[in-house]
Design a protein that fits this description.
Length: 148
């Protein structure tokens, strides 16, 4: 028989992603100033956790570093920027355009265990990596066992 954790991961993998999917749906619904017919895009984001920090990796290919802004306000990490469309080359007709362009905003609610003041970001080859360190109280501690 499989352990419960294996059954849960294999049988209900969508449930594990539900909080992140809900964040994304709500983010799209409550965008300020978004017109109904306006097409918006938002970069793909991976969120990982270690004992020391939360690591957020955003795919921002084609976005210049100067066009990216990262902020943390009241426990919400915001990534915003703009991907600009280059001019079409002379004599070329665009047959398909799948790469979205224009402004974007992503909001990620940080857990209370994260120290918002210590957040750092690096940008390399179109990939934004954000490191949000955990507060000392949230880090796992090894407890020594005394021998009686």
């Amino acid at each position: 028989m499989f352990p419960k954790s294996v059954i849960r991961e294999r049988a209900f993998p969508q449930l594990l992603d539900l909080p992140w999917q809900l964040d994304r749906v709500l983010e799209n619904v409550f965008r300020q100033g978004a017109a109904i017919r306006e097409v918006r895009w938002s970069p793909a984001v991976d969120v990982r956790e270690t004992d020391e920090a939360l690591i957020i990796v955003a795919d921002l290919s084609g976005v210049m570093q100067e066009e990216v802004k990262v902020t943390v306000v009241d426990g919400v990490l915001t990534i915003e920027g703009e991907r600009k469309v280059g001019p079409d080359a002379e004599g070329q007709v665009v047959l398909r355009r799948e790469r979205m362009a224009g402004p974007f905003v992503r909001h990620i609610v940080l857990p209370a265990s994260v120290d918002g003041a210590g957040v750092t970001a690096t940008y390399r080859d179109g990939v934004l990596t954000i490191r949000a360190p955990k507060k000392e109280a949230a880090k796992p501690k090894r407890i020594a066992i005394e021998v009686n």
